[in-house]
Amino acid sequence: MGLHARMLMLVALMFAILFGIVVALGTYAGVNDPYVYVIMAVVIVGLQYLLGPSLVGLMMRVRYVSEQEAPDLHQMVAELADRAGIPKPRVGISEISIPNAFAFGRSIRDGRVCVTRGILQLLTGNELRAVLGHEMTHLKNRDMIVITFLSVIPLVCYYAAWNLMFRRSRDDRGGDYTALVGIGAFAMYFISNLLVLYGSRIREYYADAGSVRLGNPPNELATALYKLAYGSARLKNDPRAQYDLHRVEGVRAFFVNDVAHAAREISQLREIDPDNSGTINTNEMYNLRSRRIRLSTSDRMVELFTTHPNMLKRIKRLSTLAWQG
Question: Which terminus of the chain, N or C, has less C-beta within 10 A?
Fold first, then answer.
């Protein structure tokens, strides 16, 4: 099933959850009150749509650069945008210490692709191009817009749960029902949040495949992911990096990998780099293709609550793309 079909199913399911919450609140509050929650959801979505890019740029400390300032970066982005058949996005550099890249924007014509200072010092030109191809695919698929909209629904559920679970009072005849709706809203908050995380994870697989379709060898992207995980893990004792990590906590889903789990990922990735070269070559990718990946129960549980797929699974998926005709 393609990305757009999966996202459509996810949107339908999420709005069914929202509809159920609105109906329950309407039954509790009266005929007119449910419209307040609908209006609130629309307002929140509208604010996210209008202010989202500016907030992401602010938190990531993005500075947009001209072609004269970063000619090689602009050339890569222009070539990839042409291959992807989309308008060339704005190009920016994020002044944070975490090595990574990200794409965001209100629409495909408002796209922005940014890299951090750290990634420019860590990756080779081909590896960086593979990462930029991944980000360009996010823009082409418009998946970042869908995830932004869907993320509003857990917020509405959380707001409803918070206001209803503890509102029961002695003179409130509907106290039992109020608490029940509040518990239901909290359960829907938990479920809807897991669904948003699932949507975030599947879009990463499609962006990886999209980078390959744009002409980037899978082992270049696999090596870039490996280096990014290593680069993030080694910053765990760096006070500035930890400050940056806390600063971008709310928007780290935009990154190429989940920087919060980098140390865990490195321990898994070492098993597919037997020569300890710090890169994943074509032979290692081929060997991985025929291997069966087995994750522990704890790894599978951790993945449920992350914005990105397990790194070993991602690279395993990339290895199957290398020999597709």
Answer: C
